[in-house]
Amino acid sequence: MTRIGLMADTHSYLDEAVFKHFEHCDEIWHAGDFGTIALAEKLAAFKPLKGVYGNIDDLSISSVYPENLIFTCEEVKVFMTHIGGYPPNYNSRVKPLMLEHRPQLFIAGHSHILKVMYDEKLQCLHMNPGAAGNQGWHKIRTIIRFAIDGSDIKNCEVIELGKR
Description:
Structural class: alpha/beta
Distance between the termini: 33 Å
Helix content: 10-25%
Radius of gyration: 14 Å
Number of helices: 4
Largest sheet: 5 strands, mixed
């Protein structure tokens, strides 16, 4: 079983509570808009980090983290990108990639809107962890913790970090 801490849209702000909430996670996944490479490095020093760059990230981040990340965690194919939309309204750049790669888990950030929803048509779970940072229009900072056990995605927990 792989335990994952999922976050996005930190915008250069890293709440120290993240380290407590993710202490029992095996990996941290960041769905873009890190804000600074120093923030990414701090997360990567704590736990193995997978991430994608977002629309506010500069070359220091986009030279390390790709726009799209497609990988397998246990038996689950994962597709992570920053701007992706959500079922059934995927971004026009993402829709053909979804059809080509057929992930079981699609992760996006950008909207600052926490969503966990299943796409029946593509048989894919979509997760957007909301925003963990202080910039944006969201009112509550959020992250997600979940596990992948073989082909099962389970134990999904939404964690509120507090008001922005």
